Amino acid sequence: MEHQQLKDTDEKDQKLPEVLPVLPVRDSVIFPRMVIPLMVRDEDYLKMVDQVLQRDKLLVVAMIKDPDASERRPPEIHSVGTAGVILKLTKTEEGTVVVVQGISRVKIKDILSTEPFQQAKIVPLEDIEHSGKEIEAMMTSTWNLFKQIVDLSPHLPAELIQLARNVEQPGPLADMVVSTLNLERNKKQEILETLDVKERLKKLILFLNEELELQKMGRRIQEQVKKGIDKSQREYYLREQLKAIQKELGIDKEESPDIQELKERLKKKALPEAARQVAEKELERLSKMSPMAPEYTVSRTYLDWILDLPWLESTEDTIDINRAKKVLDKHHYNLEKVKNRILEYLAVRKLNPEHKGPILCFVGPPGTGKTSLGKAIAEAMGRKFVRISLGGVRDEAEIRGHRRTYVGALPGRIIQGIKKAKSNNPVFMLDEVDKLGMDFRGDPSSALLEVLDPEQNHSFSDHYLELEFDLSKVMFITTANQLDPIPAPLRDRMEVLELVGYTEDEKLQIATKFLIPRQVTEHGFKRSQVSIRKCALRKIIREYTREAGLRNLEREIGAICRAIAREVAEGKKGRFVVSAKDVEKYLGKPKFTHDMAERTSVPGIAVGLAWTPTGGDILFVEATMMPGEKSLVLTGQLGDVMKESAQAALSYLRSKAEELGIPEDFYKQHDIHIHVPAGAIPKDGPSAGVTMLTALASLLTKKPVKPRLAMTGEVTLRGTVLPVGGIKEKVLAASRSGIKEIILPKDNQKDLEEIPEKIRKQIKFHPVGRMEEVLEIALGLNHKGKRHRRKKAA
Ligand code: ADP
After folding, report:
1. What pTM, to 2 d.p., does this model score?
2. Which residue from 213, 338, 663, 669 has the least number of CB within 10 angstroms?
3. How far apart are the C-alpha atoms of 119 and 7, rounded to whole Å?
């Protein structure tokens, strides 16, 4: 529509004829002075326009009352219309546009004829003028409201405001404003019919207010919509485009609850800046992926890792030495040396939290309390405790993780442990550092070195995370069964605390004070409900376990508790007291027989001592002879070194046959068989030399070996006894097995100092330098002729 205010022309003063043709219109209302284009399609009316143009160009425009009933001929029209002059006529494809300028309001008095179009008798209507403050105020309001509306409507040009300002008469002002606005047709007609200009302005102001409200509401709605857009418009549009593309591709997806949840978590999570950036980027990537894509899971898992790791979460240390001592004592019997060292360590930490100190390494056979000491340290410091095993780790990637390009890649065990701990300063136990392997996939011990190095571990990099993680607050403790296999650079970093294993009496104490009460309550009994007599415990220790530690003992006690629980479930009541004779009922046949005396009562059997990673054991060497042709058979999974020891022992005996009173040709018609039973356990090492020789000598001289005597030591071809390793473990194992005397190389005598006083008193030690001494002690053999030096037992 085109609006244009008419400049002062003569038309205003033009005298109107009394009768004019009427052009009925549906929606438009023409106001005096205003120019308006009208679309005419009807043939009859076009003829009328033609005729009008040929005459004075004047006509009356009047609005049809009911636009829906427009088919009626002639249509019913409002009685107030506007006389106007046709300014222009343009033919377009849709119809003919007739541009009309209003001249004056007219009253349509009578319809004189209806064919081919209406002719009506008209009376021009004059405005009822007003002036004064009130009118001025109303005009100002009108301007203001009009300005606001124009400002708010994108399709109204701003110049209209100026145009309105230029209209100084209230009536024409109202007419101009009404004709520009897109008011409802009836409202327009109402304004047309209101001749009193004050009334007209009043109505107009009302309409303007309504209009403004409408506009504002529209704007508000738009703004609300827009706010979402504005936020990050660029991103929004990109995402919208992406959505459209995805829709096209059939992977239409709204932001899934999964993504929303991750966003929420990311918002709440405390993260170092670098990690946050990576996480945000990854989330962005993820939100664009189809959940069906295999990449999605990879990306999702990665995000989960970042969000789960305790980057900045730590627990507060509460190191109180007295309390720490109580905690250590509460869980551990004896072990004073180790406990004191731990307390010192904690005291230093308390005084100087920044001081990193060495890493503690607990070395000892399984079940000697390494883990539980670690747990107690964590408890005493108020830290979380985690434990990972390094046993069998041969690949650097197990420590440091696999790169994410691998399918199913995961972070390494260190980061996994940290996640489990849920704090970045746990007590972190690295089990079995001695079992760390190494192969072509890289050296895990060098990665471990980095983990343990206080200079480097504040920025530990895991291949999977590709982000640096600060491990400097972690307190690492390592454990090992043996010290020797630990790579030297690692060992240098650690302070070794040894746990040798327990004697039978210590085990009895620990079982009574710790293991039984714990198992009993864990199985849902009251403490007083179940008790295990000392004799029963001793039987369990001797016949059901053979270990330096306490694992199996604890397990057997657990088995008894379970068996009793079952009896209770079956209706048995009262207190349960387990004595020695009940043990078999609960645990079945003994697993280890304590039949040393019987076994060694025949010639040809000697007891050796072996060192094993699980803390030492006794070992029977059996020798037997049968008719044959000089061959030596060795069985029992013996290693090469052990086989050679056997050969050497045989050679020695052949060379000394006469002295020892052995038939000189014993080997000529016989095969000799040496067997080391009890075990699929491979045995090797030279330390069974003494034992094999003794067993052979016993067989050949037909003298049984002294009962409850065990021995260890390497022998040379000439009969010198050389020192061996693992004396402490061997002696403890011997004591567990009920050995009363031990023959050992005299050069190992110094090792006896490490053995608990109590055991040293129980066992008689025979340090020896030569084989002759061994045979004399074990078999009571005196070498004929040559006298040898004899040393008294230490
Ligand atoms: P490791 O880690 O050395 O294999 P654990 O710490 O698992 O051994 O110990 C095995 C069991 O023996 C645990 O139940 C532990 O509480 C208990 N235990 C070990 N040493 C002692 C001790 N000195 N006092 C009390 N209980 C002990």
Report:
1. 0.60
2. 213
3. 29
